[in-house]
Design a protein that fits this description.
Blueprint lengths: L15 H9 L26 E8 L6 E5 L9 E2 L2 E3 L6 H13 L1 E13 L4 E13 L13 E5 L12 H13 L16 E10 L5 E6 L9 E3 L8 H10 L7 E13 L10 E11 L17 E5 L3 H13 L5 E3 L2
Parallel strand pairs: 1-6, 5-14, 8-12
Antiparallel strand pairs: 1-4, 2-3, 2-7, 5-6, 8-9, 8-10, 9-13, 11-12
Length: about 325
């Protein structure tokens, strides 16, 4: 689903099964309610309280990767992927295209989000796989404050790198080009004022039954949304919600964050819609012998309940994502 696709609205008509289908198909959902929050929640402001980085991985027909030579004093002359900070009012894709044009001289179009890296909600890097659509490689004669030049790198010839952190990003891009392990997923144009996660939190029984955690009123359930803590990893958000949901059994459970199904961002109204919502796939298992493994953990908080997935199509899609790890990876630097 492209960045221009609208989110599903009309919360009064959307069931949990509808929400599941939307998320699994790469769509977005309006973020109207928060079910788990830190002590204080304020709208995030790009370049003040949050920093978003975009990074592009682009290959040519020879499987060479696009690299730019840095002009910054602290890393002058060294090479890196086209990357930089997002500006106010930009979408993630617009920022990526701008950075590639400024630093490498090329036009490009995105293929998919490749992975997300984070140091908590204050610093997030969006890595996109993209392809060249025009322009010309920046030469030494065109050097400016953005970069000194650009070139295609065969990944074997010696090249002084600004940082080796990009090697795993290049490897991930090459792996995806050879054999995609998740459906192409681009940022979804849906506004949000904070950094949060919408959780597709699953429990599977040995008998093949599947439940997802829901929140809200029993007659109008929804998938839970949790706001990220300012100084903690994004994935910690799920643990906080689970502690609130089932405090007595929380320590007996095994939680696994598989990755991201979709990223929702708008940013058109600086200071009001600078947030990001990550639609995240998480599984939970009983870890203590003797507990009834055929039933999901007991929910103590009346705001939450388990919803049994009746739709064979939704159940099959969720199981496929879990069995194959078919999600956008998220990497934490905590």
């Amino acid at each position: 689903m492209s960045a221009g696709n609208a989110a599903r609205s009309g919360r009064e008509t959307m069931s949990v099964e509808d929400a599941l289908q939307t998320m699994l198909d790469g769509g977005g959902l309006q973020t109207e309610h928060f079910d788990s929050l830190p002590e204080t929640v304020q709208p995030v402001v790009l370049k003040k309280t949050v920093c978003y980085i975009v990074c592009a991985v682009i290959f040519n027909e020879k499987n060479e990767v696009l690299m730019v030579q840095e002009a910054k004093l602290e890393c002058h002359g060294r090479w890196y992927l086209p990357a930089g900070r997002m500006e106010r009012s930009e979408s993630i894709v617009e920022a990526m295209r701008r950075e590639v044009k400024e630093e490498a001289g090329l036009d490009c179009q995105p293929i998919t989000l490749l992975l997300v890296e984070e140091q908590g909600p204050q610093w997030i890097r969006f890595v996109l796989l993209a392809e060249e659509t025009g322009g010309s490689l920046k030469t030494e004669a065109e050097a400016d404050s953005e970069s000194l030049q650009a070139k295609w790198w065969d990944r074997e010839s010696p090249l002084p790198l600004r940082g080796r952190d990009i090697l795993c990003l290049i490897d991930a891009g090459f792996k995806y080009v050879k054999k995609p392990w998740f459906p192409p997923a681009l940022p979804i144009d849906v506004p949000c004022h904070t950094v949060c996660q919408r959780l597709l939190l699953t429990f599977s029984s040995p008998g093949g039954e599947l439940w997802v955690l829901s929140s809200g009123e029993e007659e109008d359930p929804r998938l839970p949304v949790a706001v990220s803590d300012r100084a903690l990893a994004l994935t910690w958000t799920t643990q906080r919600l689970m502690r609130e949901c089932m405090p007595s059994s929380f320590r007996k459970l095994r939680l696994k964050t598989w990755g991201i199904l979709g990223v929702q961002h708008n940013g058109r109204s600086p200071g009001k819609t600078d947030g990001v919502c990550f639609n995240t796939l998480v599984s939970v298992e009983q870890s203590v012998l003797g507990d009834d493994a055929s039933q999901p953990p007991f929910v103590e908080n009346p705001k939450f309940r388990w919803h049994k997935v009746d739709s064979p199509q939704a159940r099959e899609k969720i199981e496929q994502r879990l069995s194959s790890g078919s999600v956008i990876p998220v990497r934490s630097f905590f």
